[in-house]
Amino acid sequence: MSMLERAVKKGLSKAVGNAVGQAASNALGNAVQRKVGDAVAQPLNDAANQLSPPPDPVQTQQAQTSAAQLGGIFAGFAGAAQSYANEAAKNMKICSSCGEAAGADQTFCPHCGARLPEMTAAQGAVCQGCGQQNDVGTKFCAGCGAKLPAALAGEEAARAKNEAELSKWESLLPQYPIWVLGGDEIQIEEYGLENGCPAYGLHISGAGLPGLLAQYSQILKQNGFVTAGQYPMESMLYKRVDGVVYCFSSDNAFDGGTDHMSLYFSVREPSGGFDYVKPEPRQKPKGWKDLLGL
Fold it and tell me: Cβ contacts of residue 82 below 8 Å, gap of 6+?
């Protein structure tokens, strides 16, 4: 077994992720790893250790040589991993729902039960425009630039999944305007009771989410949601319907970064109450001349 093959298991996830693409690497990684076999990590560890700042010029040159060799190893390794993935993809389907790999002869995903695509992962990388066989996990044809069947199928599956999730809105969140602004992954999650009523989180992934949040806040205001309470904030909007106060919160919307947004919907009164009115400032005591009308 060559050093390249022995190195595969240790670096598989990163190399396949770079060379194959996230979707294919997740699905095919285990199969590729089994095909390559067990790894011996010591050669890579030895090479990596030589990359520490050396105390003299001789060791500097040795470290630079080791770094170049290590780069060559991983360059070849990525190509080998891609070849293994392409070969494995001929006998695999990728579930559009959960992203797991299944056998080419299977109709339903053994992991989530969803119907599998008709094409194998390798067939999904064949360009419908020019017929070129591309590497699995790529979205666009290397020959003509057309979007590949697997990418198109994945986008359609994502749209269908989002539509199915948003179809719950009318029954779960009827007091709030439905989210119609898009997103790569949409999930509505019940996370407990607040004031005896279910509270929900809306989780969305994708790009440009801060701008979409600003748009949704405006839609809420157009539908009667307002800032309220003793400490009014734009990130907390309220609306009272038949004596019940509904709250929308974006206070911690981007705790996980701007590519993932979490919004919260619950039944709660703002601090001080929905009808809170700031008290008028106290007037200064009148002097004796004011009291006497002088």
Answer: 16, 19, 20, 135
